[in-house]
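[Q] Does anyone have a clean structure-token version of this?
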Amino acid sequence: MKSSASHPGRSRCRRLLLVLGDQLDIDSAVFDGFDPGLDLIWMAEVAGESTRVWSSKPRIAVFLAAMRHFREDLRRRGWPVAYRELEVTGARWSFGDHPGFPDIGGEETLDSQWALTLDRVRPSEVHAVDPGEWHLRERLQAVTRAAGIPWVSRPDRHFFSTPEDFARHARGRKQLRLEFFYRELRQKTGFLMDGDQPLGGEWNYDSENRDSFGRNGPGFVPAPRRFAPDALTRSVLEMVRQRFASHPGSVESFDWPLTAAQAQETLDDFVEHRLPEFGRWQDAMWTGEPWLYHSRLSAVLNQKLLHPRTVLEAAERAHRSGRVPLAAAEGFVRQILGWREYVRGVYWHTMPGYLERNALGAVQPLPGFYWTADTDYHCLRHALKQTLDLGYAHHIQRLMVTGLFSLLLSVNPQEVHRWYLAVYVDAVEWVELPNTLGMSQYADGGVMASKPYIATGKYIQRMSNYCQGCRFDPAQATGARACPFTTLYWDFLNRHQSLLAKNPRMSLQVRNLARLQPAQLEAIRQEANVLRARWADAPGTKGA
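[A] Here you go.
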């Protein structure tokens, strides 16, 4: 890539503005004071971001297609953008009306490409919103310091709290819990508040938001807004098919929102057609219905194409106008204003050590079928195939199907983390890691959640139709028809009962072990060992 000084009419670069694939916000603080005659925007596609974990085709495509659309938006404004674009083989840099600059070489990593750019451009300053991954932030800042160039951090405006706010909240607390932080943010922002009290008199309506569809299923569910790939997106999809052919998943059904305008359309469609029923059915699952009443907004929120304030204001307006029940509105607001802010706070408060936590000593390899969906367990096959085909599964599919099985099987939590980071289109480490290691795998020993979220196969039977036609019976823990979730559940309780007995929220489940005779527990232990041995012989973990 040529330096900015090589382009007609441009003097030496004053500010080099770093924009990553999860920072696609035209109102970002990084653009404050931007002068297109003096400053240069830097964006880069590098294959290493797709191979560091074995990223699925949908995830790769969502990030690259959204980045290229954002680049075009910037250039339409007349803003200079140095952009590295992956091709089927190799890559090329482009600069506005000067496409096709040869690649500057170097490793296929962001920090390598960043170092080479700094060496050629030599800006007076680097301006950046800090990356959403601790290690990437450290590497990019270290490269910038080594080049002798000041790094100017700009605030991330897509959150209602800062890592410093969370640190103050956490100071002196023996336990971190979502509910208390969520209440603070409700009071701070005024969302769903009546003066200094919560609207309706309650902070949390979670007890009203746990229904299943029953035998008759969901009936008619309004289909979400879909976006047929345009020419730019189609070029990305074709490149992904060829360059990343060995990666899991498919882009044949690709229809994700990729621009700020499409993100707004997705929000409007959700609020109008599905938010009214979202709360009641948010935990339910059904075959052939991947979206149900969910929003499809997590990816555009995490890429910063849509501001969470816009989302929350739309949900609150819908409730106050009488179109959305309070329980539905509050359940949705809690996901955005509560959980999203909370997991980010936990991430920055506990990194880098959090990444290595393994409180339960889990060592099993991840079963290979997580990458292929090739399993005769109906619930896992359905959730995994949906994940690979769409890059999406809702929170209960992640927590109580794929996550529950790996937890009960005692899979190494770092392998589970790498899988979740690889396969979902909304996965950025600040949000994915605490959700996986903490909420799903309880590998942090209770930092994120007050207890392990474990259940037998009967939970899945109650919340879905996944068990229909499955040869395994969720009521049985041993024998030819034993459901592996049920077998592994009782074995998990038995193996960890001394730890779990100290947890007040687990005491009833632990006491239920007393209902089982020693011979039953031994049979369960033996069957659980067979299951672990089976999947230890067929690991499938990819990525570093």
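[Q] Thanks! Anything notable?
[A] The domain at 163-224+274-350 is CATH 1.25.40.80 (Serine Threonine Protein Phosphatase 5, Tetratricopeptide repeat).
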